[in-house]
Amino acid sequence: MEQDMSHYRMNYPDRIRKRGFRVTPQRQLILDAICEGEGHTTFDEIYARVQAKAPAINRATVYRALDFFRELGLIFAAEIGGHTGYEIASKPHHHLVCRCCGKVEDLTDYHFHDLSAHLLEEHGFKAELDHLAIPGLCSKCLKAIES
Ligand SMILES: [Zn+2]
Ligand SMILES: [Zn+2]
How far is the centre of ligand 1, averaged over its atoms, from the C-alpha of 116 (Å)? Predict the structure, then answer.
């Protein structure tokens, strides 16, 4: 077993069943493949892990499963460095993505608490800010440009 047991802890089969869907071996296999990424993992990485265990599963099936998991809120996806990074949904968190060197820094959620409250108050808009990738320049690249 992998050390990352988050999808067992979250009991995905139950969450899928509660919404009236079946937990097929394919879906379980694809969830496992995301889990094995330990953090963000690309479609190609997920697909390669799935292929190693079940060569008959094609790309379209994996894409459909990823869409399905996103709709159920089981996984996060974000544009990071020109790729979509997938990961098992955990508590809300964000990423600072340097467009110059590609470095990805984690960002806690508290920066967005005020923003969410304002959007709801002033616009009646319930923002879903669970997982943002914010593009920009990291401190190192910024220094290099300014010097
Ligand atoms: Zn993330
Ligand atoms: Zn940088």
Answer: 19
